[in-house]
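[step 3/7] inverse_fold.run input=structure_tokens len=227
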């Protein structure tokens, strides 16, 4: 994260000092294509039925994003973009009060996510300032979950336990377009929040999971886009 921040700061400084305007007609195109690569972290907001005796801890993992971009110009300040991608991650759900478990593996679940993420985003652009331009993003998305949950309880089977195959989210983000000599580079940060309960239907009704009422995905995507 520090390396990325330093890199963006250097680009910002160099572009602000540039004597020439790079890609002066780039934004006149009605349709633009690109690709992105980045990183992500996934988390879960857990809502309990009552004050939990055995609260759950989420250990966030860092994963990889890769995908394509199609962007349609609506007017001078608005673009509509479609950014399908593959997002992989490994998040751990840890069950506390471990003395009650007979095996260490019973104290956690590994949520191995491989999501085909399909967002539709509105991009609001500020006025171009030399060779850079800040922007805001907002939109909705769906994802196809190809991952699985690995774990068990000593006396409670979790066969075929998994989150829903399809999720729905809203997204908010911001970024900066850097107009370089031969291409546009656009780093961005987005928050992703699920809008439906993702608690598995067949979750075990034991003291650790039986008190969980709802689970909602929360994620942060950091993408480096190239056009």
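[step 3/7] decode complete -> sequence:
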């Amino acid at each position: 994260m520090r390396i990325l921040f330093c890199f963006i700061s250097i680009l910002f400084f160099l572009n602000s000092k540039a004597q020439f305007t790079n890609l002066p007609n780039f934004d006149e195109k009605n349709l633009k294509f690109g690709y992105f690569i980045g990183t992500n972290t996934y988390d879960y907001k857990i809502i309990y039925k009552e004050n939990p005796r055995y609260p759950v801890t989420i250990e966030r993992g860092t994963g990889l994003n890769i995908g394509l971009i199609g962007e349609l110009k609506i007017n001078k300040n608005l673009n509509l973009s479609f950014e399908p991608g593959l997002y992989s991650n490994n998040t751990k759900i840890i069950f506390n009060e471990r003395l009650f478990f007979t095996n260490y593996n019973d104290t956690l679940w590994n949520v191995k996510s491989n999501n085909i993420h399909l967002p539709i985003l509105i991009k609001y652009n500020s006025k171009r300032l030399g060779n850079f331009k800040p922007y805001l993003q907002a939109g909705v998305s769906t994802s196809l979950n190809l991952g699985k949950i690995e774990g068990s309880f000593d006396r409670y089977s979790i066969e075929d336990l998994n989150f829903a195959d399809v999720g729905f989210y809203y997204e908010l983000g911001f970024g900066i377009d850097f107009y370089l000599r031969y291409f546009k580079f656009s780093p961005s940060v987005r928050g992703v929040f699920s809008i439906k309960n993702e608690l598995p239907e067949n979750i075990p009704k034991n003291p650790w999971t039986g008190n969980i009422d709802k689970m909602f995905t929360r994620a942060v995507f950091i993408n480096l886009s190239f056009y």
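[step 4/7] annotate
The mean pLDDT is 83.
The first helix runs from residue 2 to 17.
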